[in-house]
Specification:
TIM Barrel; alpha/beta; 5 helices; 215 residues; 19% strand; globular
Length: 215
């Protein structure tokens, strides 16, 4: 039996409806064993600014350190690569998970993908993943290259039940050579932990649950 986890959750620090503490307590009530808060880091939507990163991290770390809860709490962030180019500020924190979004949705996807690879190469200690990725801009001639780099750099592929991104045709290339993260992309208490469809995807593809990352 796999762990009950949700590694993609938003709070009032970005575009979620509830405070981090409220979302975490709701996760406890739902029997979720592990959660990772991953608020947006962006310049164009309700999101963290570079000046708010310290407050965000400190708030989550205080909850994690001072409250005796049965649910394990991890601190993550979702980086909007369509608006954020300066990534050095991320290095100042001990993130459990960094998810990059909007990597393959633009004509400049090769540049964005290289940014992710370069960041991981310079910061191997971080768990680096692709948030709700659809490989929409990747031509067939580049698919092998993209997936070989994802495997080589151990970039985590998120199975996001909020977006159902695993319905992308290129996900048929994925197997137990890759690492996965599972998240609901929840912005509200009601959708916390709704990750069964992602688990079903792994089972259908005969990918063992031990390929889900452990933070």
């Amino acid at each position: 039996m796999t762990r009950i986890i949700d590694y993609h959750i938003h709070t009032s620090f970005s575009d979620g409806f509830f405070s981090p503490r409220d979302m975490i307590l709701a996760a406890v009530e739902r029997g979720i064993q592990e959660v990772c808060i991953t608020d947006h880091y962006s310049t164009w939507k309700p999101a963290l600014s570079v000046m708010e990163l310290e407050e965000y991290y400190a708030t989550l770390d205080e909850i994690r350190m001072n409250e005796s809860l049965p649910t394990k709490i991890f601190i993550g962030i979702e980086v909007d690569l369509s608006s954020i180019d300066f990534l050095d500020s991320l290095k100042d924190f001990q993130w459990d998970l960094i998810l990059f979004e909007y990597v393959f949705t633009q004509s400049s996807w090769e540049k964005k993908f290289q940014q992710v690879l370069n960041f991981k190469k310079k910061n191997p200690k971080f768990n680096v993943g692709l948030a709700h990725t659809r490989f929409t801009r990747v031509p067939e001639s580049k698919v092998d290259y993209v997936f070989s780099k994802i495997s080589e750099f151990e970039i985590i592929v998120e199975l996001n039940t909020g977006y159902g991104n695993y319905m992308d045709k290129w996900f048929n290339y994925l197997d137990d050579e890759y690492w996965y993260s599972i998240g609901s992309d929840s912005h509200h208490k009601n959708s916390l932990g709704n990750t069964i469809l992602a688990l079903n995807f792994l089972e259908k593809r005969k990918i063992p649950f031990n390929r889900i990352i452990t933070l």
